[in-house]
Write a structure and sequence with these properties.
The protein is α/β, with parallel strands linked by helices and 305 residues long. The chain is 40% helix and 21% strand. Strands 1, 2, 3, 4, 5, 6, 7, 8 and 9 form a 9-stranded mixed sheet that branches. Helix 8 packs parallel to helix 12. The radius of gyration is 19 Å and the shape is globular.
Length: 305
């Protein structure tokens, strides 16, 4: 069986953690290894993890830590895996509160194997799971990953991502000096330097609850309210520009030539009026949503991209 290491960050997850762990260890036809970093939980999360560590002593590795936030926590897991799991060919991200269907990892690995010579990231659709009810697939269609649109938006939900050791090696070339989610960074690196595979089927129940509103369904008013709020948040100013510069700093030599041009165009868009206009009217940098693209263009105009 293929060996796979799952990277999970936990924080006060006692309510839903057990079903998630059980679903992970119920995966078919794969050799599971679970690397968990606890981000300073103050509930019974760590106690639950220790019980699974006793049940699967050769399969579970726990890294207790202080609260640094989920973004830095996952980055710590990536760094640890790169240094300590050199013999493993496949890796996956996991949240603490979903439920994985039995074939999730087997399906992912079978897709990745066809392209083993390059850094590969696989991701899939999701089932919207709320109040213990599967409400069906979240995505009806999917945008094709391109060198330009990956810089505008992340299409790969972290809990569906599975990747090979070549991508992990690429990700270990440097740590971005910006506060960016692990899944978006891995997705961009895979698109720009390797290959991305999307599976329109789902093998995961993507749980939604009061403390997890990502992916929830909102009315039109709430959607536009959230867009205006994001536009006025200082911490989001220039985040894509900074991301592009970090990608060039760390991965310029890893990128396809056309990918590097796409990143350079975004990174240097404020260098001149002509650069800004070229980016403004380039339809390739898109979030594939008219409303979101409107604010994307506004950020370019105001120099806040």
């Amino acid at each position: 069986m293929d060996q796979i290491t799952i990277l999970m960050s936990t924080y006060n997850g006692e309510k839903f953690l057990r079903p998630q762990l059980d679903s992970i260890f119920s995966q078919e036809n794969v050799d599971i290894h679970l690397l968990i970093r606890d981000d300073g939980s103050v509930d019974s999360t760590l106690s639950i993890l220790r019980k699974y560590e006793r049940i699967y002593p050769d399969k579970v590795k726990i890294l207790p830590g202080e609260n640094i936030g989920w973004k830095k926590s996952f980055r710590t897991l990536l760094d640890y895996a790169a240094e300590n799991f050199n013999g493993c060919n496949y890796f996956a991200f996991a949240d603490q509160d979903d439920i994985w269907l039995p074939a999730k990892l087997e399906k992912a690995i079978s897709n990745i194997k066809e392209h083993a010579a390059v850094p590969v990231l696989y991701y899939s659709n999701l089932f919207f799971y709320k109040n213990e009810i599967n409400e069906g697939l979240i995505h009806k269609t999917a945008a094709e990953a391109t060198f330009k649109n990956c810089l505008a938006r992340n299409y790969a939900t972290g809990c569906t991502i599975v990747f090979n050791s070549r991508l992990l090696e690429c990700l270990s070339h440097g740590t971005p000096c910006i506060d960016i989610p692990h899944d978006h960074w891995a997705y961009m690196v895979a698109v720009l330097c390797g290959k991305v595979i999307y599976d329109s089927d789902s093998y995961i129940l993507y749980r939604q609850h009061d403390s997890n509103q990502i992916g929830s369904k909102h009315g039109l008013f709430d959607v536009w309210k959230a867009r205006f709020k994001r536009f006025s948040q200082p911490e989001l100013d220039n985040i894509r520009e900074k991301t592009a510069k970090e990608l060039l700093r760390i991965h310029a030599s890893d990128m396809y030539p056309e990918a590097r041009k796409a990143v350079e165009k975004l990174a240097g868009y404020k260098d001149s009026i002509s650069n800004r206009l070229r980016l403004l009217f380039d339809s390739g940098y898109t979030l594939n949503n008219l409303g979101n693209d409107f604010f994307f263009k506004l950020r370019i105009i105001f120099g806040k991209l």
